[in-house]
Design a protein that fits this description.
The protein is α/β, with parallel strands linked by helices. The chain folds into two domains: 1-30 and 257-291; 32-251, Rossmann fold (3-Layer(aba) Sandwich), CATH 3.40.50.10160. It has helices at 3-8, 12-28, 39-49, 68-84, 98-113, 144-153, 194-206, 223-227, 237-247, 253-288, and strands at residues 56-62, 88-92, 117-119, 122-124, 135-139, 185-190, 210-214, 234-236. Helix 4 (68-84) packs across helix 5 (98-113). The two termini are 17 Å apart.
């Protein structure tokens, strides 16, 4: 068997093994991947950055653990930016598997905010983030379309208590907060058709400021809503998350993951090139042999 025939007969398990090795090696490397900032990501950062202390940002955790690598870094970067700027955050999870990830992010970011940090040249002294005062986690309820509509009338309709069982009327942050009219914006981190519900049942009906953090494969489908001004920003995939981490000067999982993604893509492209070379060389040899 000649070299080209061997290339065509390569067992795909070797491909998977090589890819796994590259990913493990890439995780241990320290080189930086250049991150270019897109306008649709910059617009989300600019909007949050210009809010005044005490204003409310609504973050919806609308994804499952299978999308955690792309969307969880967005949640961490957004929450830390809000807490550092003393913005108030209302969090909900319209995916049944979202509450655990949201609760973990709240605890992790709350611990991070306790430390003195400098972001983009601004020193932020550490402080304690308090549940009910700095943030409210409403939790999960089924039927997201109905929940979105209900919250547009009153948050208390679908969520009389928060995720921890505390009546939301007893929480200081919720005093005078009735519905979307009292929040500066809604940012949905979505993997699936919940994003469509936020546009049709939320922004289209109640006309609030809406932005999305989406999986990479979803991003392109939502740019028409950006052009029509129905949403003011999009973060798409791990690269979108890495852009937001760079804007907030808060390096995290997304920027670290870009090294792995870059080398993995290079390897896949290399295998595609090798496969095509083997295919055309084998076909040419068969023609020369009269087959």
């Amino acid at each position: 068997m000649d070299m080209f025939a061997k290339m065509m007969a390569l067992d795909r398990r070797w491909v998977f093994l090589t890819l796994a090795i590259v990913c493990v090696v890439a995780y241990g490397l320290t080189f930086e991947v250049p991150i270019l900032i897109n306008d649709e990501v910059q617009s989300i950062y600019n909007f949050i950055d210009t809010l005044k202390p005490g204003q409310i940002v609504f973050i919806a955790v609308d994804y499952d653990p299978s999308n955690q690598a792309e969307l969880q870094p967005m949640l961490y970067a957004l929450m830390e930016q809000c807490f550092r700027k003393d913005l108030k955050v209302i969090i909900t999870a319209l995916s049944q598997n979202g509450p655990g990830m949201a609760d973990q992010a709240i605890r992790d970011v709350s611990d991070s905010v306790k430390l003195d940090r400098t972001y983009n040249g601004v020193n932020y002294p550490g402080r304690t983030v308090e549940r009910g005062k700095d943030y409210v986690f409403l939790g999960y309820k089924p039927y997201p379309s109905l929940i979105i509509l209900g919250m547009g009338q009153n948050f208390r309709i679908p969520f009389p208590t928060d995720y921890y069982g505390t009546p939301i009327d007893s929480l200081p942050l919720m005093k005078g907060v009735i519905n979307y009219d009292q929040v500066a914006c809604v940012i949905s981190l979505a993997a699936g058709n919940i994003a469509d519900m936020w546009i049709a049942d939320g922004q289209g009906r109640y006309n609030f400021k809406l932005a999305f953090g989406l999986t990479g494969v979803m991003g392109a489908d939502y740019y028409p809503y950006l052009s029509s001004k129905q949403i003011f920003g999009i973060m798409a995939g791990q690269y979108g998350a890495a852009q937001y981490e760079k804007l907030t000067d808060n390096k995290g999982m997304a920027q670290d993951g870009m090294r792995i993604q870059l080398l993995a893509h290079w390897l896949i492209i290399l295998f595609i090139i090798i496969g095509n070379i083997g295919f055309f060389a084998s076909r040419r040899k068969l023609k020369e042999q009269g087959k």
